[in-house]
Amino acid sequence: xxxxxxxxxxxxxxxxxxxxxxxxxxxxxxxxxxxxxxxxxxxxxxxxxxxxxxxxxxxxxxxxxxxxxxxxxxxxxxxxxxxxxxxxxxxxxxxxxxxxxxxxxxxxxxxxxxxxxxxxxxxxxxxxxxxxxxxxxxxxxxxxxxxxxxxxxxxxxxxxxxxxxxxxxxxxxxxxxxxxxxxxxxxxxxxxxxxxxxxxxxxxxxxxxxxxxxxxxxxxxxxxxxxxxxxxxxxxxxxxxxxxxxxxxxxxxxxxxxxxxxxxxxxxxxxxxxxxxxxxxxxxxxxxxxxxxxxxxxxxxxxxxxxxxxxxxxxxxxxxxxxxxxxxxxxxxxxxxxxxxxxxxxxxxxxxxxxxxxxxx
Length: 361
Ligand SMILES: NC(=O)c1ccc[n+]([C@@H]2O[C@H](COP(=O)([O-])OP(=O)(O)OC[C@H]3O[C@@H](n4cnc5c(N)ncnc54)[C@H](O)[C@@H]3O)[C@@H](O)[C@H]2O)c1
Description:
Largest sheet: 10 strands, mixed
Strand content: 15-25%
Bound molecules: nicotinamide-adenine-dinucleotide
């Protein structure tokens, strides 16, 4: 079975979609759409799509029965409409991250996926990193005990992407939705998607506004930090930057009552290298180094397969489509990132902590 793909938005990231579809195999790009006709034509010529299947309206493209799945590669503010239209037209959707720029948009997308019974996978490729997958298995096994605190961190010292990423009109928001969605989703996924209930946050754009390239035109944030309270009583501190006066905002980690884990290694900080952990390490084909070997110890792991996370996410999408089964990245889980982000922007505007609520789907 070849999965026939229509691509909406033929800008920068659509090339990565095409590359991954080709590398993974089992896909054929049969139609492209961009509001800028010349861009759509160029993409079609590059990918061998006939000109009769080049569109400037995704609604027209969705009339093609020969399309099974749709790649949504428009800027963040343009995810909802083509994704919902494609799901309503009975197509599966692979949509770029973030799911959407706003909570109402993300909610509409998850509702459309549920109502149509079609797959909606969001392109958060970092979640497929084998190190994160192992960290999740450690957490799921209960080896850390209850998690009462975590930090979810990412970003860069100077990497303002410019282009359509710096305008609210196209991107919706800045560093928080652009790169923050990766580490925020990875932490929530690893912890089993705890339900957020309160958020206190600030955002900042000061350093970019001193740069003549961005001054007065960029209207999104370059930095954000939030204190997120979950209904299980635990708290997560979220930190992200495009631009900041630090090399790094630190690692992402989770503190459990029995042990702690740094997600990036991963590294486990425990009072013993237990037999249960030894069993898990063996079953995963990994090697562990506990130092010291007994008592309060720091356990580092090696032997993770070196994989291409882009190919991994597209493979997962292909298998979900073939089996007509849910993707491993559930849209209901990704929706929690939009719930928290919505809380971050409301909290910043209000100057105080705000309540957040996960919408009914
Ligand atoms: N996964 C990653 O590593 C990664 C990297 C970069 C960007 N992205 C994401 O990909 C998305 C797009 O980013 P980009 O860099 O390709 O942006 P881009 O601005 O280069 O491309 C977006 C394209 O969408 C087109 N478009 C806009 N509205 C449309 C509509 N209604 N119908 C058809 N086409 C439409 C635009 O004309 C443009 O060609 C963003 O959501 C971004 O967050 C992901």
